[in-house]
């Protein structure tokens, strides 16, 4: 970290605090050369590692785009999408790791999306979990039904994949 005034390479951190819910750190620094003080804000970088090994910075906008596609024709507003992306970011950041496998981002999307819109959830899950048969959908739908309060099925219909 070079001093912005005299380009001196050494500086002392005199104060450090987390801002934006810990997503960034604001540091107050004092230059060892000229003694002037300045502030730096360092954002905690979150990297998504794809299955191919390619990495890219986590992007809330990208989450929104993926979910928006699943929400086509559904009564889901832009605000709800932004909120969902915010929750996803909080979830993946909460792991404390700087590198997140892309499938964990997908997992973090599934939970809030299920609450938001079940049809969009099924669409997203079918791609994300690569549903290959109608049974995969049936199982997921049975699971969704089972979660609805007051609508617990009294008996299980069918015999596929008992969990
Ligand atoms: Zn300086």
TrEMBL record:
Keywords in alphabetical order: ATP-binding, DNA-binding, Metal-binding, Nucleotide-binding, Repressor, Transcription, Transcription regulation, Zinc, Zinc-finger
PROSITE patterns assigned to the protein according to its UniProt record, in alphabetical order: ATP_CONE
InterPro entries, sorted: ATP-cone_dom, NrdR-like_N, RNR_NrdR-like
One matching Pfam family: Zn_ribbon_NrdR
Keyword Transcription: yes
Keyword RNA-binding: no
Protein name from the UniProt record: Transcriptional repressor NrdR
């Amino acid at each position: 970290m070079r001093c912005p005034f005299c380009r001196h390479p050494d500086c002392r951190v005199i104060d450090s605090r987390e801002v934006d819910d810990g997503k960034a750190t604001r540091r107050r620094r004092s230059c060892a050369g000229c003694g002037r003080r300045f502030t730096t804000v360092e954002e905690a970088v979150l990297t998504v590692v794809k299955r191919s090994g390619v990495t890219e910075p986590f992007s809330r906008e990208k989450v929104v785009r993926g979910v928006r596609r699943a929400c086509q024709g559904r009564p889901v507003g832009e605000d709800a999408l932004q909120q969902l992306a915010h929750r996803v970011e909080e979830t993946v950041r909460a792991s404390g790791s700087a590198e997140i496998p892309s499938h964990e981002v997908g997992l973090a999307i599934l939970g809030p999306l299920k609450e938001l819109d079940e049809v969009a959830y099924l669409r997203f899950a079918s791609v994300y979990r690569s549903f290959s048969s109608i049974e995969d959908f049936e199982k997921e739908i049975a699971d969704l039904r089972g979660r609805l309060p007051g609508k617990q099925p009294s008996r299980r219909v069918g015999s596929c994949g008992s969990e």
